[in-house]
């Protein structure tokens, strides 16, 4: 049973990674830093999951990237683009709306009645 | 830009549907009721997404189902199995842990520092 909940938790985390990555990239970070921060926050994410996501968010215009070749190995840094920075509050609103809805369902004694009341 | 956030929101909702469906199924409901409740809660989910998920949760032993053939058309009702009912608190804990972690990142002025502090 614990492996089943690990799986549900993993799927949930995957859906959250892009919103969290965008929030983290208010600061300039390279990919592996993000992996470490996610893991430290309990949102373990494989590099193979994160890196394609970062490239996609960049191609969508939300992130900017830059190679830093000064260190012992080149590192690709990411940061929110001006568009991404402007869009972040909207994303946080999506997050609050969704988690609010889920929280109300989880905390309600009769979620079916609750949702019917909301629909009115 | 709004369509992009619709997309991020949709992906996030998809990850949440199974946790919400299990919570809803503390009460006996048929599939389309769940679709309506999810929509009323702002978690729009297609029947084609939900129904395979319900079957999967049943095959994993978390749900029980039963056909009711008394009405004008047969309806398949679902409800938490005893195993599902026993497991729900653990699932809610997963939810709280994950949303707590995401919330702390979104609300932090320096999420990188925050995560480094948590790792210590």
Give the topology, please:
2 copies of one chain form a homodimer.
Chain A: H1 2-24, E1 29-30, H2 31-40, H3 47-59, E2 63-68, E3 75-80, H4 82-107, H5 111-119
Antiparallel strand pairs in A: 1-3, 2-3
List descriptors.
homodimer; 120 residues; mainly alpha; Arc Repressor Mutant, subunit A; three-stranded antiparallel sheet; 68% helix; elongated
Task: Give structural notes.
The structure is a homodimer of 120-residue chains. By secondary structure, chain A is mostly helical. Chain A has a single domain, classed as Arc Repressor Mutant, subunit A (Orthogonal Bundle), CATH 1.10.10.10. Chain A contains 5 helices and 3 strands; from the N terminus they run H-E-H-H-E-E-H-H. Chain A has a 3-stranded antiparallel β-sheet. In chain A, a hairpin with a 6-residue loop joins strand 2 and strand 3. The N and C termini of chain A lie far apart (38 Å). At the A-B interface, helix 1, helix 2, helix 4 and helix 5 of A face helix 1, helix 2, helix 4 and helix 5 of B.
CATH class of chain A: Mainly Alpha
Shape of chain A: elongated
User: Total number of β-strand segments of chain A?
Assistant: 3
- Largest β-sheet summary of chain A: 3 strands, antiparallel
Category by helix and strand content of chain A: mainly alpha
Average pLDDT for all residues of chain A:
87
Question: Which strand order does the major sheet of chain A show?
Answer: 1-3-2
Summed up, the helix count of chain A is 5
Q: If you compute it from the alpha carbons, what radius of gyration of chain A comes out, rounded to the nearest whole angstrom?
A: 18 Å
Would you tell me which CATH topology of chain A applies? Arc Repressor Mutant, subunit A
User: Regions of chain A with pLDDT < 50 over 5+ consecutive residues?
Assistant: none
């Amino acid at each position: 049973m614990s492996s089943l909940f690990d799986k549900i938790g993993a799927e949930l985390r995957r859906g959250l990674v892009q919103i969290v990555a965008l929030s983290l990239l208010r600061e300039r970070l390279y990919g592996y830093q993000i992996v470490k921060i996610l893991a430290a926050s309990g949102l373990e994410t494989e590099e193979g999951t994160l890196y394609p996501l970062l490239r996609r968010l960049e191609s969508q215009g939300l992130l900017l990237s830059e190679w830093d070749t000064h260190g012992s190995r080149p590192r690709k840094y990411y940061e929110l683009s001006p568009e991404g920075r402007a869009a972040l509050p909207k994303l946080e609103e999506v997050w609050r709306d969704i988690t609010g809805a889920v929280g109300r369902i989880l905390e309600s004694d009769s979620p079916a009645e609750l949702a019917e009341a909301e629909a009115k």
